[in-house]
Amino acid sequence: MSRGPGRVQRGILEALEDGPLTGPDLARQVGAGEDSTRRALRRLEAGGRVVCLGFALGGGQRWGLPHLREARAALLSPEREAHLAAVMGPRFARSFRRAVVSGL
């Protein structure tokens, strides 16, 4: 029987209320190791409490609360991204997607 989210998971949820962060940034804010932060993120993602928004410009996955995925989709829908890739090229489309994720 589950006892609820642990210290690292609670810290992650509190930190993400202020906006999306990368895994290493979350580990620093929570005061935990990167491995335990990654495990906590996977458990929270499986429970639908956090979502991966993609990769940030500096590298690393950017994590946020579920409502931010809808905001990202509103900014860059799959159709819009496909059109951008057709016009500007796939490499530019990937860079633009990373810029959108970093801007959230």
Automatic annotation (TrEMBL):
Gene3D superfamilies: Winged helix-like DNA-binding domain superfamily/Winged helix DNA-binding domain. InterPro entries: WH-like_DNA-bd_sf, WH_DNA-bd_sf. It comes from the Bacteria. This is Winged helix-turn-helix domain-containing protein. It comes from Deinococcus rhizophilus.
